[in-house]
Write a structure and sequence with these properties.
Length: 710
């Protein structure tokens, strides 16, 4: 470590207080202030804490000037969180931005002197421009095709490819929207022509133009390098070639760079991201310090073990270069033990969604907050079944990626009212003032019983109240500071600009990609069947390994409760031709661990079950309902009517008390199967279709009691 890395200070000083609470490796990061530093940080290991304390320690020891430090990350939310933490550590002057935000700020400042004239308008969405480019080429496109073409053009631009160089580099890539590379290159050029005609630029242009100016104008480059002397890059495994080029130009010939990342969380290669820069950092900077953060403070040992096992099972067939996957960081759990992750196989998607809703209701009854529960899936199209199941069960939810929080009407109205009241705010504590103001808009201490728009409105206002409580605790009198209504309104304005929304009550429904950087007490990973995880179009070792990393990211979002599930058929009664994800082999109970290649040879198929036949007449059973009860619809039922009615009455009462639809507990077909089979024990009951582990645990004893009494 460099001699300038740590500056000793008297015990109990502000600088020493900044280091208090950091573990040994985090403290090493925080006190390594000079020269290149590579932090390999596993999920849940406190990387943001380490790097923000590093910046704060550097500023308070006089090694850094806050205005000359630039911290860069990949989402506006992450940048806003970093700014908040830095402000709480007393170094609010440090710039924390996304790559795009930092580049746009520089472009707006230097455009007049480097180019002249007004800066072109910024294009928010590519769809209309791509549609116009397609019309110019007489190409037929729909919304899905335009979306795929936009993603391909973005990939080409962040890979620093022109329409001319695209064809060569895109060889072997999947054809977007079914178009060959030559056609895509023509469309790419037409898209650029339309932008020129309209005098607009897109987000990728912001980086490309800024890079161009820094390369061509020595004065501009010198000004930027004089402004920023120290750089921190978070999520470094996700940098694209274009972002890396910009970082190189910011640095010049200096090496005051700290990068933080985890190659096992590289999940955005389809956008041009690559972990190569992280993995080769010490080749570029041979004298760089390397610190590994492996103490996981987020998840229980059971969750951590599953995550480690998932990556440990990864192998790769010898390639032309003879290389292998980089050795993943092995996390070491720091939390107390928790429940074992559960694995649930369901008959169909509807049954899978219903069992998830039932288990979520159980967590809510046990005191887990709805905002601390998430259902994560591979594709956004999977969300509908879970939206319906949660709505039927009377459970509120929020769809991540839906309407932005600060664009909601009630939130805009609330901020206007809070801003007006801040001008005349007295000495009353901010949290109480916020409650008083928002009461005029419908906020109450207790959540309304109604659902729909009324409940959503209340949840938005409650999120603002919760944020006021949180900020007052961090910056108000309890923290030895002063936090005013003006401060709160300023925070809201800053968060609105960065789309840094507060926590909204309600179960989160999100894709695995959008869950990156977030965490919850309970996580349900759903749809884990072949074709969805890994996705069907992942047809190379590299693509399937990224799918494995995506599942790893999903697992490591869970603090305590983790449930993994899959279904055998898409629709009730449909053909049960799905198989559990190969990634679960060796992880779920009674599964083989003999996976060879991440994308190649699969484990031997399970022995196919014999065709289901009616136990009365022996004919083949066709529908799912017939297979569930074990007889065809032509044969008479063999249960006692009183037994069936007793089960139905129990189901009705149970559903009513839990405020959920009756079918969520057991379907009619399952009740018939129970009444006819009359199981005498929990193991016998568990063998019936429709009675999974969660339902067995929750309702098994009640069912056996009813059967014994009837």
């Amino acid at each position: 470590m460099s001699a300038a890395a740590a500056v000793p200070r008297p015990e109990g000083s502000l600088e020493e207080q900044i280091l208090t609470g950091l573990d040994e490796e985090q403290r090493q990061v925080a006190t390594s202030l000079a020269g290149p530093l590579c932090v390999l940080a596993g999920a849940g290991t406190g990387k943001t804490r380490a790097i923000t304390h590093r910046i704060a320690y550097g500023v308070h020891t006089g090694v850094y000037q806050p205005q000359r430090v630039l911290a860069v990350t990949f989402t506006a939310r992450a940048a806003a969180e970093m700014r908040t933490r830095l402000r709480d550590l007393g170094v609010g002057g440090v710039q924390a931005r996304t790559f795009h935000a930092a580049a746009l700020r520089q472009l707006q400042f230097f455009w007049p002197q480097a180019v002249g004239g007004p800066l072109p308008g910024l294009l928010d969405h590519k769809a209309n421009v791509i549609a116009e480019a397609a019309r110019r080429l007489r190409l037929t496109t729909d919304r899905a095709a335009i979306r795929d073409l936009a993603a391909e053009i973005e990939w080409a631009k962040v890979s620093m490819l022109t329409p001319e160089s695209y064809v060569r580099r895109a060889a072997g890539r999947a054809a977007p929207a079914g178009y060959d590379q030559t056609t895509v290159a023509r469309l790419y050029q037409a898209y650029e022509d339309v932008k020129t005609d309209r005098n607009i630029i897109d987000f990728e242009d912001v980086l490309l133009i800024t890079v161009g100016i820094l390369q061509e104008d020595a004065k501009v480059a010198a000004a930027v390098r004089d402004q920023y002397r120290h750089f921190v890059v978070d999520e470094y495994q996700d940098v694209s070639p274009l972002q890396q080029r910009m970082l190189d130009l910011w640095l010049g010939d200096r090496d005051e760079l700290c990068v933080v990342g985890d190659a096992s969380q590289t999940i955005y290669s389809f956008t041009g991201a690559t972990s190569r820069h992280l993995l080769e950092f010490t080749k570029r900077f041979p004298g760089a310090d390397v610190v590994k953060l492996v103490r996981d403070y987020r998840s229980t040992p059971q969750v951590v073990q599953l995550a480690n096992s998932l990556l440990a099972a990864r192998t790769r067939q010898p390639s032309r270069g003879g290389d292998s996957w980089p050795t993943p960081l092995e996390l070491i759990a720091q939390r107390p033990a928790g429940p074992e992750p559960s694995f649930t196989e369901c008959a169909d998607d509807e049954a899978e969604a219903a069992q998830v809703a039932t288990r979520i209701r159980g967590l809510l009854d046990d005191g887990v907050a709805a905002a601390q529960i998430a259902v994560l899936f591979r594709t956004n199209g999977q969300s509908q079944a879970y939206e319906q199941a949660l709505a039927s069960a009377g459970i509120g939810y929020q769809l991540r990626g839906g309407e932005r929080f600060f664009q909601r009407r009630e939130v805009r109205d609330a901020i206007l009212q809070l801003r007006a009241s801040s001008r005349a705010a007295g000495t009353e504590p901010v949290p109480q003032l916020v409650r008083d103001v928002l009461a005029n808009l419908g906020y109450t201490r207790e959540a309304p019983q109604a659902g729909g728009a009324v409940r959503e409105r209340w949840e938005s206002l409650a999120a603002l109240v919760g944020l006021a409580d949180e900020l007052d605790a961090a910056r108000g009198s309890a923290a030895g500071g002063v936090f005013t209504m003006l401060d709160f309104v300023a925070e809201l304005d800053e968060r609105a600009a960065a789309q840094h929304a507060p926590t909204v009550q309600g179960v989160t429904l999100a894709s695995l990609h959008s869950a990156k950087g977030l965490e919850w007490d309970a996580v349900f990973l759903v749809g884990l069947s072949e074709g969805l995880m890994p996705i069907s179009f992942a047809d190379t070792d590299e693509a399937v390994d990224e799918e494995r990393r995506l599942l790893y990211v999903g697992i490591t979002r869970a603090r305590q409760h983790l449930a993994l599930s899959w279904s055998l058929a898409r629709t009730p009664g449909g053909r049960a031709n799905r198989k559990p994800s190969r990634f679960l082999d060796g992880l779920r109970p009674a599964s083989s661990s003999s996976v060879r290649s991440v994308s190649g040879q699969r484990p031997a198929r399970r022995k196919q079950a014999a065709p289901a036949v009616c136990r009365v007449c022996g004919t083949l059973l066709g529908s799912g309902a017939e297979r569930k009860v074990g007889r065809c619809h032509n044969c008479p039922p063999t249960y006692e009517e009183s037994t069936f009615e007793a089960l139905r009455e129990w189901r009705k009462d149970t559903a009513s008390s839990a405020s959920m639809p009756a079918f969520v507990i057991f379907t009619d077909a399952t009740l018939v199967a129970i009444a006819e089979a009359r199981p005498q024990s929990l193991p016998e009951l568990s063998k019936l279709a429709g009675v999974g582990p969660a339902k067995l645990e929750r309702y098994g004893e009640d069912v056996l009691r009813i059967l014994a009494a009837n």
